[in-house]
Design a protein that fits this description.
heterodimer; A: Uridine Diphospho-n-acetylenolpyruvylglucosamine Reductase, domain 2; Uridine Diphospho-n-acetylenolpyruvylglucosamine Reductase, domain 3; 16 helices; disordered C terminus; B: alpha/beta; Fumarate Reductase Iron-sulfur Protein, Chain B, domain 2; Rossmann fold; four-stranded parallel sheet; FAD binding (chain A); Oxid_FAD_bind_N (chain A); FAD-linked_OxidoTrans_Type4 (chain A)
Chain lengths: ~475, ~425
Amino acid sequence: MITQAIRSQFIEIVGEEWYKDSTQERYCYSFDATPLFQAMPDAILIPGTVAEVAAILKVANHAKIPVITRGSGTNLAGGTVPIHGGIVLLMNRFNKMKEIDLQNLTVTVEPGVITADLHQEVEAKNLFYPPDPGSMRVSTIGGNLAQCAGGMRGVKYGVTKDYVLGLQYVLPSGDVLRCGGKNIKDVAGYDMTRLLVGSEGTLAVITEVILKLLPLPAYKQTLVAYYDQLIPAAQTVEQILANRIIPATMELLDQSTIKVVDQYAQLGLPQNMKAMLLIEQDGHKEQVKIDMHQIATLAKRVGAVQVKIAKTADESKKLMMARRVALSALSRIKPTTILEDATVPRSRIAEMLSAIEKISNTYQLTICTFGHAGDGNLHPTCLTDERNKDELKRVEAAFQEIFETAIRLGGTVTGEHGVGIAKQHVLKYQLGATSYELMKRIKRAFDPNQILNPGKIFTSEHRKRLVVRK
Amino acid sequence: MNDHLQTSQKLMDQLDQCMHCGFCLPSCPTYRQVGLETYNPRGRIALIKGVATEKLKLNAEFTKHIDACLGCRACETACPANVAYGNLLESAREFIVQSDQKSNWIQRFILKHLFTHPHRLYTLGNLLWFVQKTGLQKLAKSFRLLNLLPSSLREMQEIIDPVVSPFIRRKRKNLSPSSSHQRLLSVGLFTGCIMDIFFYQTNQATARLLTSLGCNVVFIKRQGCCGALHLHAGYKSEAMQLAKRNIQAFEQSKVDLLVNNAGGCGLALKEYHHLFENDQAWYQRAVHFVEHVRDIHEVLYELSPLPFKKSLNIRATYQDSCHLAHGQHIRKSPRQLLQQIPGLEYIELEDADQCCGSAGIYNLTHFPMSMKILDEKMAYVHATNAQLIVTSNPGCLLQMKKGIIRSGLDKQMQAIHLVDLLDQLIFDGDNEIVDRI
């Protein structure tokens, strides 16, 4: 609860213009991109300086008011839903690109910078920031760090955590600290940078980010392979890696996704195929051509019915379109689209895909699977209607089985979306009690009053103040 | 709480179609300016849903948030889930009208007492001509009488071109026969309401182009305002009344196609069937009507190559009309037509399909926000180094003229409707733009 006195303190810090607490304003911050979760914050604060962030945290920490740091609110695990009320700390005024360091190949940005804007800026200088989550035109770098966002280029280039060199962050106490920097090697103490990346706003508020950049690859080529069975598609992925080739992207679409995508975009995809793989390689032209030729040969040998290498950039674009429009195509069919991200080691994709198909049949659900086959990160996507309570129960049961299968195969319940609220019931099961407790102790060391994004990652110790389910 | 609202199952279904993914955020001009959820489509849909399900009050704050939307529908282009945002917005504004929330008085006056009455509009045109012709406008300016107007009207009056005299307007014949040896089509020209006063010449140019390409052009009797502004403001019954009048006029005219030259009007005409979903007979008539509506750029592109008589050695760029691009999905034909002009160097404008802030009468009702949006647009326009910015909708044209003055580009750049430009390059006569550049 925010008392009159605290409200005045907050307003004194950020100014009247940047403090919002009308019912309708709060209502607009009661949800993010996650289906089914909604809860009202007490106020929205939009700080403009690090000093303001520190001052806000001090007040909130003293009064034990929850603080939910937020960028564009596109996360898919309920990470920014204020289930215990409190204040939403909106970071989108921190939107400056501070420096592109051409000697060290780093970029220093504020957390509110939009991911795609960063891409554009560095690519103009022939540099490359690989993480490209599906929401990159909307999402902020701060949000990407909080969730350790992935994307389609994970196979070869890794994910957000592989590019963060240093941070400035603020603790609930109001202390402004730095970790890491522009050093490629730095083992002075624990790696706080890596710890904060993916911490979902539960440990600190990030106010500045130093990211590593790569040279922009000179050449890129795309290949598509169609399969009349699911297993050979997965085997192709395994074979490519086993042959010491690491493509930039390996995306898979299953038959139900192919059908929906083709109905939507009329790309002329063969609807009788059980799966399609989209593979991209980048780098030096000669090497890319050699790799692509070898990939095509492997795909055919394993059992692809048809393999086609794009001849022009336009053709590549058209091929990748099938993957890019997948979410759009799927989300038009039913009101509620639940996109999951169970992930397994790449050698287990075939088993995972068959399991998903079986589970989908058992529970009589429409589950379309597409995703980043190259890094084992699949997106089984359930098309449902949140108003159909009976079906929702089956959806929950089905996903529970999918999670259990992923863990059994040595995988994880979440590859890139985070735990938030959506996965917290399975976290302990995956980690084991001791790891789970250790993580909670780390949380307490940073945030003894439990004000930073309470009720996320770990199941809550407090009673939830507001209705969580819509 | 909000029990007087008529929320249909269809409305609820459309609201539920939004999965709040946020993909619309960067496409929203007001969100780009303000950065708050209350100023983007995802937030507005949440508010509409909140009001429709009685979780939120329909109060002055709701009105403020809903009124701040330009209605440009760029979010519909960005939306992966195909949410019918335009419909949701119209429903929300209808709620507001039903609930007697005070709307902007300028808007109320223009919509209820002016645009619905063709005769009043005609008289307004005459009056305006008189004021301009007799130098009363200048006089009023020098005596600071314009200060009596609200600031938005005062600011926008400077961009209004001289209107055509009543004597010339009265001479218009109902039919301009094809001037080509072919007779391809009989085309009705939708003249619009305000369009025919401020842009009479553009309507005439449209007719000239069509006749030269083998069309008989009919100025259909008894047609009137398309009703777009009424619908966007929540005055649905007025919009329905206007729609019925236009449908009837079209049916009696027996033309093959009904062509318009204003992206905003065109979209409203193409969506007439949405108005009559509860009236089977009128719905059928509306569907028939909609099937025959075309934007002039679609038609010209189909009939191209155009018989250009002159070349134009300049650099030009194109600003999309929101309702043409996002609403009617017409992006290619105006660009292609421009690029067919001999000598013209075409340069694409960055974010060309972002609203310029004109948005019907938004620049009168929300002047400061409209100007912020315009200033961002003009920065991109400036970067093109173009000498000419071409539009496909009269509202955008006026706003671009305002933008050129505001950004101090008036010595180096002009704005023109594509139809007027084509007309000047195909026909001899009054070649204003061509001569000035």
